[in-house]
Each structure stands twice: as structure tokens, then as C-alpha cells.
Amino acid sequence: MLERRPMFVFAAATLLAATGACTAPTPVAAPATIGVDGQVVQRSRNALPPGTVVSVRLLDVSRADAPSVTLDEQQIRLEGAQLPKPFALKVAAERVDPRMSYAVAADARLDGKLLMISTTRHSVLTRGAPSSGVEVVLEPVARP
């Protein structure tokens, strides 16, 4: 009986090594991301009031008859500063399909009231559109 124990231990160790149970777990790679960066600017010379929040969104605008899908959003609190302000958005690489269309949109609000908005489509990521150095222009909203 004593002679079989070392053989059993050797067989068990060999089996564990063969199945990979004795090896360290393989680290899982973080999902790759794709970034879009640029700046939000305004053409008007009107100063934005303190407390203004600029929202910049990366959108999937592929479906013509459906609302766009927000893939990432960044909130920029101006705290008395003025535009231009840089932005950086990210999306998981597997969510970007080269056949689809993506755009960046922005707006500026004070206490939830819309002050400025981007009125031009700023295409990014696919179909030859840039992913860096994107300039999103905000236009004043008409007031009654």
C-alpha cells in the first residue's frame, strides 16, 4: 500500500498539469477602445454665464428613421471659463462598425436651459472621417 501512494501522487500531479489546473490564470485583456478628441468652440463673442455646462456626445447616427444612440458623453463645467474647451470621448472598439455612421454633437446649458447647440453634423470614426482634432461649433439658440 505504501508503494502505491507516491505513484498516485505523481499521476494526480501529472493530470493536473496536463489540464492546466496548476497554472496561473491567464489575465483577461481590457477591451480595446477607440477615442475621439477635439474642442468645443463658439463663433459668437457672447460670454457664457458661470455655471454653464457643455455636454459633448459621441453618437451612432446610422439609422435615418430612428433616434441616434449615445455611445459616450462628457460634461464640461465652465465655472466662469469660456470656450474653446477640449473634449475626449471613448467607445469600445467592438461597438464601432465601419459600415455605420458616427458623429459628435454638443450643447451648452445653464440650469437645464439650452443656451447653445451644435447645428452642423460633425462626422467621426468611419468613412474617412477624423477621430482627432474634431472642432464642434456651438451656435446661440434663438430666444423669444
TrEMBL record:
InterPro entries: Lipoprotein_YbaY-like (IPR053196), Pilotin (IPR039366). It holds the Pfam family YscW. Keywords: Lipoprotein, Signal. The keyword Ribosomal protein does not apply. It comes from the Bacteria. Residues 1-23 form the signal peptide. This is Putative lipoprotein.
